[in-house]
């Protein structure tokens, strides 16, 4: 195992984070705070409790997920896309690092950054609403698992994208809508019956539901199914990455 | 002695159908400077990209430092440094960070003393905290060399090292390449500048259209292929080559002040004595004389053209049959 290699990539990626602190940490925290003010405090004060949880507290898990998904994807995809774009990827390709080590470095750094961000949002939320965490261990578990999974997903997008537009299109056109429709701001039980069924095809529903269960002990779908779906998606992403390195797709000619 | 790199039957056809390498065999000896010479698009970069792991070969195998480049890629790559042709650097990193990154990536424990020595050698020490994007093109090239040497490789590939490089850096680079060879590093450089191969290399390989046409010790190559010229500067210009010299391989310069005699250094009788005797007979004086060997460039052009003509002849012959 080339530990120095993993550490080099990880450190390089984290250095990029500290360099772009405003963009990578401050801006997501600010925008989430705005959600808390608008939905949590202003509108939420006129809404009833959902499953015995105040609306302001109810949206916390969903909002963290929203940032976690989009930041994991954008971090990891940009992290691998940029060396491809600038040509510096030659060095990683010619280095004695295995596919696993490359992914560990890039995905590990992207996930670390998302986890830090998620925890920061959690702390920020405290300034606006009261909440408690029933299953802190599971909360962290879902946080780490989701960050890893979506950082891998981002890594795949970064490999697939051959221009900046493609880099943006999946997060903007697919992931953000799915998160908004995935019960970040409402319980899916509030939907008409037909839409409840349709919503179950949205994978993000399971992530948010499981995460919310860890907070409040209540969920839209069984937490076991949530965990299963999260692990399934992780497995799919790992398979995708394995295939990319086996075939050299878009990285080697 | 066992070659440090042994290329066998290497072929590469890109997805678009372009064949960059055709069944290439090549051995690089330990500790030598080997120049891979060829026009643009000949397959030089593809060849070294395969050895370095950036491009997958279509066929054939490469053994480097005793290990298969694909099966034992870790062992192979940790001993290889590559300076690619394109200037590809991170923009926002500092020089110090990027060179240390490279060392870590290649699996070596940090060694600040060595990196300092390397940066000083490449005149980069003063710039160690500068962001790479703030550096000039020549400085960026130095950074890429520092990155390639950061893990103390045994084999160094320099792909077109002096393309677009100022004279000072070129001199520094050649100096450094010589020092590296002294320390036992094997150096493979690709170039289409003949002077570079001529000045630097111990051996020269000529590649064209994806085929290695010839591999030869540089001196042998120049001796073997070389033609020599004997130029005479005349105090009184001539209108034409005098009758008495007409059967000799002579050319007269346009202004008639220089008479050039061509001879083959391989042949036992160069004919110089005869030429000088007849000059004396014809009462032609000369002010100065000098001889010149043909450069590698002339040899190279001759080879590439010759091969081309050969294959055309082959085609014509095949067409006739």
TrEMBL record, chain A:
| Residue runs in coiled coils | none
Per the annotation, which location comes first and is thus the protein's main one? Answer: membrane
Recorded topology in the membrane: Multi-pass membrane protein
Q: Where are the transmembrane segments?
A: 20-43, 55-82, 102-125, 137-161, 167-188, 200-218, 224-245
Q: Where is the ABC transmembrane type-2 domain?
A: 19-248
UniProt keyword Aminoacyl-tRNA synthetase, yes or no: no
Among Pfam families, the record links this protein to:
ABC2_membrane
UniProt keyword annotation of Transmembrane helix present = yes
Q: Which GO terms describe its cellular component?
A: ATP-binding cassette (ABC) transporter complex
Where does the record place it? Answer: Cell inner membrane; Membrane
Protein keywords: Cell membrane, Membrane, Transmembrane, Transmembrane helix, Transport
The terms under GO molecular function for this entry are: ABC-type transporter activity
Q: Sorted alphabetically, which NCBIfam families does this protein's record hold?
A: PRK15066.1
Concerning PANTHER family, the annotation shows: INNER MEMBRANE TRANSPORT PERMEASE YADH-RELATED, TRANSPORT PERMEASE PROTEIN
What is stated as this protein's family in its record?
Belongs to the ABC-2 integral membrane protein family.
Q: What is this protein called in UniProt?
A: Transport permease protein
Source organism of this protein record: Microbulbifer rhizosphaerae
From TrEMBL, chain B:
Q: Which SMART domains match?
A: AAA (SM00382)
Record keyword ATP-binding present: yes
Q: What's the short name of a Pfam family annotated to this entry?
A: ABC_tran
What is a single molecular function from GO for this protein? ATP binding
Keywords, ordered alphabetically: ATP-binding, Nucleotide-binding, Transport
Source domain of life is: Bacteria
Any keyword Flavoprotein?
no
Domain called ABC transporter: residue spans: 5-234
Q: What is this protein called?
A: ABC-2 type transport system ATP-binding protein
């Amino acid at each position: 195992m080339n530990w120095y290699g993993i550490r080099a990539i990880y450190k390089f990626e984290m250095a990029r984070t500290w360099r772009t602190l405003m963009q990578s940490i401050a801006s997501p925290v600010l925008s989430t705070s705005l959600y808390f003010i608008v939905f949590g405090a202003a509108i939420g004060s006129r809404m009833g409790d959902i499953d015995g949880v105040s609306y302001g507290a109810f949206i916390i898990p969903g909002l963290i997920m929203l940032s976690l998904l989009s930041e994991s994807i954008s971090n990891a995809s940009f992290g691998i896309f940029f060396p491809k774009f600038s040509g510096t990827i030659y060095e990683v390709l010619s280095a004695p690092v295995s596919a696993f080590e490359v992914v560990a470095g890039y995905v590990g750094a992207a996930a670390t950054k998302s986890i830090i961000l998620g925890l920061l949002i959690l702390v920020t939320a405290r300034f606006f609403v009261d909440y408690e965490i029933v299953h802190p261990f599971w909360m962290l578990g879902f946080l780490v698992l989701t960050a890893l999974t979506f950082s891998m997903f981002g890594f795949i997008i970064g490999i697939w994208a051959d221009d900046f537009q493609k880099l943006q299109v999946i997060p903007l056109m697919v992931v953000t809508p799915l998160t908004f429709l995935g019960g970040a701001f409402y319980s899916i039980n509030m939907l008409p019956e037909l839409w409840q069924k349709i919503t179950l095809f949205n994978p993000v529903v399971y992530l948010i539901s499981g995460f919310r269960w860890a907070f409040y002990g209540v969920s839209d779908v069984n937490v076991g199914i949530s965990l299963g779906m999260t692990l399934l998606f992780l497995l799919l992403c790992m398979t995708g990455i394995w295939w990319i390195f086996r075939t050299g797709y878009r990285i080697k000619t | 002695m066992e070659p440090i790199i042994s290329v066998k039957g290497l072929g590469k056809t890109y997805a678009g159908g372009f064949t960059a390498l055709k069944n290439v065999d090549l051995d690089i000896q330990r500790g030598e400077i080997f120049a891979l010479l060829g026009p643009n698009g000949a397959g030089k970069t593809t060849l070294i990209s395969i050895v370095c792991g950036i491009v997958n070969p279509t066929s054939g195998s490469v053994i480097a430092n005793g290990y298969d480049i694909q099966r034992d890629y870790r062992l192979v790559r940790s001993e290889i440094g590559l300076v690619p042709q394109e200037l590809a650097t991170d923009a926002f990193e500092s020089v110090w960070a990027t060179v240390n990154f490279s060392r870590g990536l290649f699996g070596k424990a940090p060694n600040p003393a060595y990196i300092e020595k390397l940066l000083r050698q490449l005149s980069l020490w003063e710039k160690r905290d500068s962001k790479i994007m703030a550096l000039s093109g020549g400085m960026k090239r130095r950074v890429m060399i520092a990155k390639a040497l950061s893990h103390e490789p045994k084999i160094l590939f320099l792909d077109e090292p002096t393309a677009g490089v100022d004279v000072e850096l070129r001199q520094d680079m050649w100096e450094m390449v010589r020092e590296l060879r002294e320390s036992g590093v094997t150096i493979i450089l690709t170039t289409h500048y003949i002077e570079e191969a001529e000045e630097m290399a111990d051996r020269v390989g000529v590649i064209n259209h994806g085929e290695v046409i010839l591999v030869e010790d540089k001196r042998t190559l120049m001796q073997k292929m070389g033609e020599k010229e004997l130029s005479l500067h005349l105090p009184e210009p001539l209108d034409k080559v005098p009758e008495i010299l007409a059967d000799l391989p002579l050319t007269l310069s346009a202004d008639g002040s220089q008479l050039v005699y061509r001879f083959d250094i391989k042949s036992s009788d160069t004919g110089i004595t005869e030429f000088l005797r007849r000059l004396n007979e014809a009462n032609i004086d000369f002010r100065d004389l000098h001889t010149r060997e043909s450069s590698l460039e002339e040899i190279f052009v001759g080879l590439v053209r010759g091969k081309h003509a050969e294959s055309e002849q082959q085609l014509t012959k095949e067409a006739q049959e």
